[in-house]
Design brief:
By secondary structure, the chain is of the alpha/beta class. Helices cover about 25% and strands about 25% of the residues. It has 3 domains: about 90 residues, Ubiquitin-like (UB roll) (Roll), CATH 3.10.20; about 230 residues, FAD/NAD(P)-binding domain (3-Layer(bba) Sandwich); about 120 residues, FAD/NAD(P)-binding domain (3-Layer(bba) Sandwich). β9, α3 and β10 form a beta-alpha-beta unit.
Length: about 475
C-alpha cells in the first residue's frame, strides 16, 4: 500500500511518471525513481526470494544492498539486488535463477576514471569527506551503490541534536539535500548505482574496481581512498526469523520515508535504542499501529526524549523482554514475546502472543569493513565501536597508507559524528598527498575538538573508550 497522506513528507510530488514492470509475467504499476523491491512491496509482493535448500520464503531485510534476501533475476540477469535497483518501463522480474548470464563477447575493456581521492560511499561521512577533500584542493571522485545520495539521511525524518553548524534542528532528509547540493555546486564527479568490489595497489596508484548498474566495469584510479561504506543491520536468532515481514529497522524506514510504502498494519519492534524508538513514531506517522517495543536490557538504551514521546503516543516499552518466535504461513502473522531473567533465559509462563504482520529488528548495526579487510588493512574487534573495525590513527588513516575511513565503517555512532569524521578524513587525505597546505591542519584540530564535545555526554562514553582502545592498540 502506498502512503498518500503524511505529516512531514509529500509523496505526491515524488511520484511522477508511471511505468509498468512485469513480475512473473504479471504487470505491476510502479513509479520512476523507486526500486524494484519498493514497487513489489507496494503491489503486495513480500516474498522476493527462496532459500536454496529448503525453499523457505525470503523477504526484504536490509534494503541497502548488503544482504542476499532480495536477489532476483531481472531482464534475464540473476542475483540482482532489487532493493537498490531502480525500476524501468517493461522490466521483467522473476524468481532468482543462480546461473551465470551470457558472457560479454564484444571484447570491451573496463572504463578508467581518475582522481586524486576516491570516496566510496555517499552517506553523511562520504559526502562530507568528498566536500572537504575538494575544498582542500583535491580532485575527488565519489561512488555509491545506491540510486540516490544521502545514505541513511534520506530516511531520517527526525530533527538532529548538536550545534547549529552540525545541522541541529534540521531533519535528516533535509541534511541529505543540503550535502547533495554542495556536491553539485563543486561539480564533484559522482557515480551512482556503482558498487565497489575491490581495492588494489598498482605502483603509486590505488585502484577501486567498481561495477555500475550490474553490468559496466569501471576502474577508479587515485592516490588515496576514503572508505565510508557505512554499516549493516544486525540480526538476532529466534524461531522463524527468516519469514517475510521481518525487516531491519533501516529497511522499514526506506520503504516508508523514501518511497512512501506502508510496510504493514501492526508492528512489533525489537530493540529500544534510539533507532527503535524513532522508528516507532515514524511507523505511527505512516499509519502503522505499534503493538509494543521489547528490549532485552533492564533499561531503555535510547534518549529519554524519544522514549517519552513514544510512551505518550500509547506504545508500551517492555524491558527484560525479547521475541521468542515469529509465526505465520509463509509470512509474519504473529509474534510470541517473553520475559527473560538476569541470565537472559526465557521465564516460562510469561509468553504473550501479538497479532502483527511486521517485525522490526532494531538491535544495532555492525561496521561494513569487507573492502578494508580485502585491501589488507589491520582489523580489530572493538565491542564499543560495534564489532570489527579497521585500525586507524587520529587522522582516520588506516594501517595501509593512503586508505582512510570515516563514519559507521569506523565505528557505529551518530550521523553527526560521521560527518565530522568525514571532514577529518577528507582534509587529511589531501594533506597526506601534499595537495593541501599546512594551514588545513587547523581544520582537522578544530573538527577533532567538535567531535570531542559531541561525545562528551553519557551516550558517547563507550565510544570514547572504544577509540582509546583502538588508538592505543589494547
Amino acid at each position: 500500500m502506498r502512503i498518500t497522506d503524511h505529516p512531514i513528507l509529500d509523496f505526491k510530488k515524488k511520484r511522477t511518471r508511471k511505468v509498468t514492470i512485469y513480475y512473473n509475467g504479471k504487470p505491476i504499476e510502479a513509479y520512476e525513481g523507486e526500486t524494484i523491491a519498493a514497487a513489489l512491496h507496494a503491489a503486495g509482493v513480500r516474498t522476493l526470494n527462496y532459500s536454496r535448500i529448503k525453499k523457505r520464503a525470503r523477504g526484504l531485510f536490509c534494503a541497502i544492498g548488503k544482504c542476499s534476501s532480495c536477489l532476483m533475476t531481472v531482464n534475464g540477469i540473476p542475483n540482482v539486488r532489487t532493493c537498490i535497483t531502480l525500476v524501468e518501463d517493461g522490466m521483467k522480474i522473476e524468481e532468482n535463477k543462480p546461473v551465470l548470464p551470457p558472457a560479454n563477447s564484444n571484447g570491451s575493456k573496463a572504463k578508467t576514471v581518475k582522481g586524486d581521492i576516491i570516496v566510496i560511499g555517499g552517506g553523511p561521512a562520504g559526502l562530507m569527506a568528498a566536500i572537504s577533500a575538494h575544498d582542500a584542493g583535491a580532485k575527488v571522485v565519489l561512488i555509491d551503490e545506491n540510486p540516490i545520495l544521502g545514505g541513511q539521511l534520506v530516511k531520517q525524518t527526525h530533527k538532529f541534536f548538536g550545534k547549529r553548524e552540525q545541522f541541529a534542528g534540521i531533519r535528516g532528509i533535509k541534511i541529505a539535500q543540503i550535502l547533495e547540493e554542495e556536491i553539485r555546486k563543486r561539480n564533484i564527479e559522482t557515480f551512482l548505482e556503482t558498487s565497489a568490489v575491490g581495492i588494489f595497489q598498482e605502483g603509486n596508484e590505488k585502484i577501486v574496481v567498481g561495477v555500475r548498474k550490474e553490468k559496466e566495469l569501471i576502474e577508479f584510479r587515485g592516490k588515496a581512498i576514503i572508505v565510508a561504506t557505512g554499516a549493516m543491520e544486525r540480526a538476532i536468532p529466534f524461531e522463524n526469523n527468516d519469514l517475510p515481514g521481518i525487516y531491519g529497522a533501516g529497511a522499514i524506514q526506506t520503504l516508508m520515508n523514501t518511497y512512501g510504502i506502508k510496510p504493514g498494519e501492526k508492528a512489533l519492534i525489537v530493540g529500544a535504542g534510539n533507532v527503535g524508538l524513532i522508528l516507532a513514531y515514524q511507523l505511527l506517522q505512516a499509519g502503522v499501529k505499534v503493538e509494543a517495543i521489547v528490549e532485552a536490557m533492564p533499561k531503555i538504551g535510547g534518549y529519554f526524549v524519544h522514549a517519552a514521546k513514544v510512551r505518550r503516543l500509547g506504545v508500551p516499552i517492555l524491558t527484560r523482554h525479547t521475541i521468542l518466535r515469529a509465526e505465520g504461513n509463509g509470512k509474519v502473522e504473529r509474534a510470541v514475546i517473553v520475559e527473560i531473567d538476569e541470565n537472559w533465559n526465557p521465564i516460562p509462563g510469561t509468553e504473550k502472543v501479538l497479532d502483527v504482520d511486521l517485525i522490526a529488528i532494531a538491535v544495532g548495526l555492525r561496521p561494513s569493513i569487507e573492502l578494508l579487510q580485502q585491501a589488507g588493512c589491520q582489523i580489530r574487534y572493538i565491542r564499543e565501536l560495534g564489532g570489527h573495525v579497521a585500525v586507524r590513527d587520529e587522522w582516520m588513516e588506516t594501517t595501509v597508507r593512503g586508505i582512510f575511513v570515516a563514519g559507521d565503517t569506523a565505528g557505529i555512532e551518530e550521523a553527526t559524528t560521521a560527518m565530522l569524521e568525514g571532514r577529518i578524513a577528507g582534509v587529511a587525505a589531501a594533506l597526506r598527498l601534499g595537495i593541501a597546505d599546512e594551514s588545513w591542519v587547523r581544520e582537522i584540530t578544530k573538527t577533532q575538538k567538535e567531535l570531542e564535545e559531541f561525545r562528551s555526554g553519557p551516550f558517547g562514553k563507550h565510544i570514547v573508550e572504544g577509540i582509546k582502545k583502538l588508538l592505543e592498540g589494547s
